[in-house]
Design a protein that fits this description.
This protein has 379 residues and is α/β, with parallel strands linked by helices. The protein has two domains: 202 residues, 3-Layer(aba) Sandwich (Rossmann fold); 160 residues, Histidine kinase-like ATPase, C-terminal domain (Heat Shock Protein 90, 2-Layer Sandwich), CATH 3.30.565. Helix content is 48%, strand content 20%. It is built from 13 helices and twelve strands. The strands form three sheets. It has a five-stranded parallel sheet, with helices on both faces. A five-stranded mixed sheet has the order 7-9-10-12-11, with helices on one face. It starts with 6 loop residues before the first helix and ends in a 6-residue tail after the last strand.
Amino acid sequence: MKNTMNTSEIDKRLLIVDDEIGPRKSLNVIFKDEYEVFEAAGGAEAISLASKKNFPVAIVDICMPEINGIDTLRELKKINSNMEVVILTAYESLDTAMSAIKYGVSGYLKKPIDIEKIRNVVSSCLDRYSFLDNLENSVRTNIESAQRDFLHMLSHELNTPMNGIVGFIELLQDTDLDEDQRFALNSIKECSYRWLDTINDILDYSRLAYANVSTAKSIFNPHTLLINIISRKKEFNPDSNIKLILQPNFPNTILGYEYDLKSVLDKLLANAIKFNPKGNILISFMYRFISEKKIKLKFDITDSGTGIPPDDLMRNNIFKPFYQMESGNTRSYGGLGLGLAICDRLCRKMGANLKVESVANKGCCFSVSVNFELPENLN
């Protein structure tokens, strides 16, 4: 069962479930600037709220009287199978983790709260929820029911086991490991996220193959969006030297295609790191007002990596799906060759301008210019 509500109305709702008021209020403070936060003092209240409103993401404590976190997770998933539920507990155990994974948990985090980690987890959960919701909406009017059900099942079945793997990795990272074990665990974690990125690229490209795909607009903080992307990339690429230049007095909120913009910037930064793993990467974030109601954002992502061969640049080959540059480095870097093709399609869908400049073996610069609205001036 899934509640039906316009996606733009639910993009930023977060449900916090904990019988203790202290943790609830702490999480509320962490997320209140980015999300419409709802608090529930127990499982019964959470289930009641979820039956009335759509929540993309819920953070649920394990140890609660009457209805514990696992039973709450199970009931929330019955109400909305796409809901991303993060379990938060100070009393982790293997049995608890197994039960959470069985019922489709999206994340399994320990108390005390690591603010940066929980922000990244919730942000990733919101991305997945938005993707699935947009996928269902787009294919509903473009392909037959059996094909729609297949794409939904494929996304769910590929992502759910990997969420379980990542959850166990998080648990193992907090145990007593020697240097070799920690290195191996970090390698497993990196491979897991690469798997998730690859699957989501395939599904994203499939979604964009339909001409009538539409993504809901939402109000968001562009600075926060960019900082979250950078922090997640640094977690898995600590050797990358990423520098951010932000124009002063940047507006706190804008209205537009947040999910699409995040996907583009995430993939462009991933590419810069991929072809320049230990070099310098400069992100410039500028803006100018077009009118009282509109603003133009401009992002430049510049790296000092391998660059793009002139022939590939001249023929615009890099934006073709499944295309990989003809060089000896192709297999070293890997990938399906979908990232830039997705960026190109998303930018065209948003009405954004995507440009690239490059010198072979000296690096390249990808620029994105896109117009957004200013919500405070909307009627």
